[in-house]
């Protein structure tokens, strides 16, 4: 499977007021430059995600649901740090509001069907950070 997304900073986060959101906690069993293995708990569900090398805006991604209890056990047994955020949903956009030591960082992303897909960029969107690897969750995790 492939994931193609663009990421942007958010300059007006008042747009999330009243939007539905999920509470997300995620950890990484391994986290290298061109591949990672992530454990994510999203509300009452948990997932293992394998991400591969990114070329342009496209990267390999395989995701599998696992029991939440097993995800919590993996995090505890391997003493993994946890990245926490709330993910808000606004039309086709996902807006991540980071918590803890990353508090204040707000990143919006949109998944697109192809790298040359044209879409409207709303006025609340700020600088594009798609090609800045420091805004990948796997890189933000290293700052915890």
Task: Describe the secondary structure blueprint for this structure.
Layout: E1 2-10, E2 21-32, E3 35-42, E4 45-55, E5 58-66, H1 68-77, E6 83-90, E7 93-98, E8 106-111, E9 125-128, H2 137-141
Antiparallel strand pairs: 1-5, 1-8, 1-9, 2-3, 2-6, 3-4, 4-5, 6-7, 7-8
Quick recap:
The chain is 10% helix and 51% strand. The protein has two helices and nine strands; from the N terminus they run E-E-E-E-E-H-E-E-E-E-H.
Can you walk through the features of this model?
- It is a single chain.
- The chain has a single domain (2-141), classed as Hypothetical Protein Pfu-838710-001, CATH 2.40.320.10.
- The mean pLDDT is 94.
- A hairpin with a 2-residue loop joins strand 6 (83-90) and strand 7 (93-98).
- It has 2 helices and 9 strands; from the N terminus they run βββββαββββα.
- With 144 residues, it is mostly beta strands.
Radius of gyration: 15 Å
Going by CATH, the architecture would be: Beta Barrel
Beta strands, count: 9
Mean pLDDT: 94
CATH topology: Hypothetical Protein Pfu-838710-001
Lateral arrangement of strands in the main beta sheet: 1-5-4-3-2-6-7-8
What is the helical fraction, as a range of percent? Answer: 10-25%
> Main sheet, how many strands, which sense, barrel?
8 strands, antiparallel, barrel
SSE arrangement, N to C: EEEEEHEEEEH
Distinct helical segment count: 2
Low-confidence stretches: none
Any idea of the CATH class?
Mainly Beta
User: How many separate domains?
Assistant: 1
Tell me the structural class: mainly beta
Taken from the alpha-carbon principal axes, the silhouette is: globular
CATH superfamily: Hypothetical Protein Pfu-838710-001
- Termini Cα gap: 29 Å
Percent strand: over 45%
